[in-house]
Amino acid sequence: MTAPASPALSGLLREITAAPDAHELFERTSTRLRRSVTFDAAVWVATDPVNGLTTAPVRVENLHEGGCGTYWESELFAEHVNLFRDLAVAPVPVAGLRAVTGDRPTLSPLYRSFMRPRGFGDELRAVLRVDGQGWGQVSLFRERGRQAFAAADVAVLHALSAPMARRLRGFARPATSGSDGIHAPGLLLFGADGALLSVNDEARELLALMPPGPSRTTAAGLELPLPVWILSTAGRARLTGDSARIRIRTLTGRWLVCHASCLRDANGQPSTTALVIEHATPSDVAALIVAAYELTRRELEVTELIAAGLSTAAIAAHLRVSAHTVRDHVKSVFDKTGVTSRGELVAALFTEYRQPASESVTCGSSTDEPAELRRRQTPR
């Protein structure tokens, strides 16, 4: 399903291309989209492409009186129809609630607990997806009494899905700013009810580096507003009993990793949830950077070997290809990353992190498995 070419759609695509960062991307697209698709409230979310969990930034429009918190709780803890994880793999990653329920929206807990109390009659949601990966999500709401979202609205949002995802992906490129000076990990502990129990000073400092967005205070004594992406990550671990992990871009452009794990008491029952915030290592964000620059798997291998200091001949011998092929890959990598030398390439892709690039280099003879899973070897 593709929206027909129109001046309105062309304008939207221009706004997407021109957006300098993810915040502006959401704001400009939302403002322009209203000219083509009517909606009364919206939630725009960036997601981690590995697991679809909410990350930063998040833009919420016209949700008042605690509506934002109720929305996140409904998304996290209530099974309902029209799931984002289903749209992420659907042929068309866009769908309206009334359309998928046969005009019976009460089948959805999200409708019953969030939409109906706030006067919304329909939701149009989309996964922003490119090359099989979801980089964001959108929920558009219409008030009761308005016409339900139609096929034409679905087509417009579908036409924006890949361009917006591609733009979000591009924002994952490494920062050139220096260190923020915080090296110890931050730790937050949540109770079985999701309330924040304790937090260390490093966590407060790292939270202050995160971009602005919707937040909630979960403990009266601590009075620490927590971003929704922190709450949803801790909530996912608490709900499933498994670990949850997201990557966050800070205000300085650097990357943090948030790991949440559900702890159990002596009887094996969930008790507290621990969430650790720390600076990303190269392996934490390698997939994001590769996607941002649209490098192929082979180009990533060549880049890692360059970072390890191997010559063209050594790379060719290691990969069992010709030196000419290696030079072609290097030229392609230079073109994609906008550098002109190997030194610039290593600086652009790896100097953001404390861990030396050479520590993340992985070597192997097979090209069928991800480079980061291969055993490290020294070429002879």
Q: Based on CA inertia axes, which overall geometry fits?
A: globular
Task: Please tell me the overall pLDDT.
Answer: 84
Number of helices: 14
Percent of residues in helices:
25-40%
The major β-sheet equals: 5 strands, antiparallel
Q: Give, in order, the helices and strands.
A: HHEEHHEHHEEHEEHEEHEEEHHHHH
Intertermini distance: 53 Å
Number of strands: 12
Order of strands across the widest beta sheet?
2-1-5-4-3
Structural class: alpha+beta
Tell me the β content. 15-25%
Oligomer: single chain
Radius of gyration: 22 Å
Can you tell me the residue ranges where pLDDT is under 50 for at least 5 consecutive residues?
353-380
List the keywords.
380 residues, alpha+beta, five-stranded antiparallel β-sheet, 14 helices, 12 strands, 21% strand, globular
Task: Give a structural overview.
The strands form three sheets. Strands 2-1-5-4-3 form a five-stranded antiparallel beta sheet, with helices on both faces. Strand 10 (244-249) and strand 11 (255-264) form a beta hairpin. Helix 7 (151-170) crosses helix 10 (282-293) and helix 12 (312-319) crosses helix 13. It has helices at 7-18, 22-33, 67-77, 84-87, 97-100, 109-115, 151-170, 201-208, 228-240, 282-293, 297-307, 312-319, 323-337, 342-350, and strands at residues 41-47, 54-61, 94-96, 120-130, 133-143, 186-190, 196-199, 215-217, 225-227, 244-249, 255-264, 270-279. The protein has 14 helices and twelve strands. Residues 353-380 have low confidence and may be disordered. By secondary structure, the protein is of the alpha+beta class. It starts with 6 loop residues before the first helix and ends in a 30-residue tail after the last helix. The protein is 38% helix and 21% strand.
